[in-house]
Amino acid sequence: MKRIFYHGLLLFFAVSVIIIACKKDTVTQFPANRPTSNSNPNSNPNSNSNSNSNYSSIPNTPIDSADFVLIGSLSSPRFGMSAASAGSKILFAGGIDSSGYSSRVDIYDTITKNWSKAELSVKARQGMAVATLGSKIFFAGGEDADNGTSITSRVDIYDAATNTWSTSELSYPRAYLAAVTLGNKIFFAGGASFSYILGGYTGGLDIVDIYDDNSHSWTEASLSAGRYELSATAVGSKIYFAGGIYDIHNISSVIDIYDYNSNTWSTSQLQNPRTGHVGILAGNEIIWAGGAMSSYWNGYSLYDNAEIRNAGNGISSIENFSPRADFSGVKTSDKVVFFPGWTNGPDDASGNQLDIYDVPSKAWSIRVLRATFRGEAVVSVNNEIYVAGGQINGSSSFANVVWKLKF
User: Fold this and answer.
1) Cα–Cα distance measured from residue 102 to residue 141, given in angstroms and rounded to the nearest whole number
2) Most buried residue, 4, 246, 282, 390, by most Cβ within 10 Å?
3) Secondary structure letter of residue 38 according to DSSP
4) pTM of this prediction?
5) Measured between alpha carbons, how far is 139 from 17 in angstroms, rounded to an integer?
6) Closest CA relative to residue 371, chosen from 352, 343, 391, 353
7) What integer pLDDT is reported at residue 149 of this predicted model?
């Protein structure tokens, strides 16, 4: 789903650059007052997400405000970056800039407050999977449809302890795969193999590449069915690879479950097929939030619910959730924070709402931002949430600002 939007976005920017070629880039500023919605904050948008409300579909949910504290700037404005942290370093990598796909990596040191930059080894990357293991951050796969290479198997590895880079390779080139760390291993699962140059889609892949950091070696396993835009969540000794999209039309409800201790696989089912969702651990529960029930090509209908599964007994419940897809979810010590995504389809200007799940009380609340966002990179470090880049208030320009979220 993201792929069609990103390529349309690049075409839009090619035209925009001609129009504003003589205009100096500026950082988008927040408005003085929080934007208002034409909808009642307590209203319940319909389930197909055609409502223009910026507020939650969760009835009787407390609504409060949130704001940002500016901490710095990216070296270049970008949209759709991958973000991760190790040690005191936060990395914002790849994405799209005003000239196309980017290989830039901006590195922020949370202790010294200094910035540095680097480049990924394969120029222009987007749709990467990212995971952290110890002091190392792995950026795997991704696509660049602008120069004809389309997708890559490259894995760029940054070691925060030594401030050095190295590379490795996936067994097969792919984008929109999932990555998760468990024990001393990282699992890179699924992904899409396709080519815009050839105009063809080969659908989702069932490959799981497993990197062992102790032996510095790779092994392979397989999902029960190939798919991309799936989620990967580690719970105790198990990993849940959930949902995704088989091809351009068919959405998956399959959950492939890997048991680290026994080195065995089993399967389960989501209550609803999902793609473009977030899968995240909240205490002993897995939250599979939002996402789409149909692909971009079939209308891109969004879910207004989240499935919450108790990892101990395997029982799931369905709770209301604001309709959105292709969004970020991050954890602090006791909360899970879900950021805006596409709320009315992939061409929507997104929202200004954070849905927050309090883990101890299992209660939901809402925080309303002073601006709308989409395509931002989000990462949680030491219970602080950092937000970088993207588009603000529907601007045609990408932002280069980096903030910390303040409740």
Assistant:
1) 14
2) 390
3) S
4) 0.84
5) 30
6) 352
7) 52
Pair of tokens at residue 199: 């105009």
**Contact between 340 and 352 (Cβ < 8 Å):** yes
* CB 142 within 8 Å of CB 123: no
Question: Tens digits of per-residue pLDDT, 226-257?
Answer: 999 999 999 999 999 999 998 878 899 999 99
Mean pLDDT of the chain: 82
Domain 2-406 belongs to what architecture?
Answer: 6 Propeller (2.120)
Q: Are 330 and 35 in contact (CB under 8 A)?
A: no
Distances (CA, A) of 117 to 47, 74, 393: 43, 9, 27
Place of tokens 């789409």: 292
Query: Could you please report the per-residue DSSP string of 80-119?
Result: S-EEEEETTEEEEE--EETTEE--EEEEEETTT--EEEEE
Residue pair 341/374 in contact by the 8 Å Cβ criterion: yes
**Residue 297 DSSP class:** G
Separation between Cα atoms, residue 357 and residue 359, nearest integer Å: 6
End-to-end CA distance of the chain: 31
Q: Checking DSSP bridges between strand 231-235 and strand 200-204, what pairing results, if any?
A: unpaired
Which tokens is 101 given? 């796909």
Residues 249/296, Cβ–Cβ less than 8 Å: no
Please tell me what DSSP assigns to residue 296.
Answer: G
* 2 phi and psi angles, rounded to 5 deg: -65, -30
Judge whether 402 and 108 are in contact, CB under 8 Å. yes
- In this structure, of 186-190, 301-305, 358-362, 369-373, the range with the lowest mean pLDDT score is 369-373
The three-class DSSP label of residue 311 is: coil
At residue 66 the predicted structure's pLDDT band, cuts being 50, 70 and 90, is: confident
What is the predicted pLDDT for the residue at 53? 33
Interatomic CA distance for residues 176 and 232, integer angstroms: 12
- Would you kindly state where each structural domain of the chain is located, as residue ranges? 2-406
298: three-class secondary structure by DSSP:
helix
Instruction: Look up tokens 């097969």; give the residue.
Output: 172
Distance, in Å, from the CA atom of 129 to the CA atom of 131, rounded to the nearest integer, reads 7
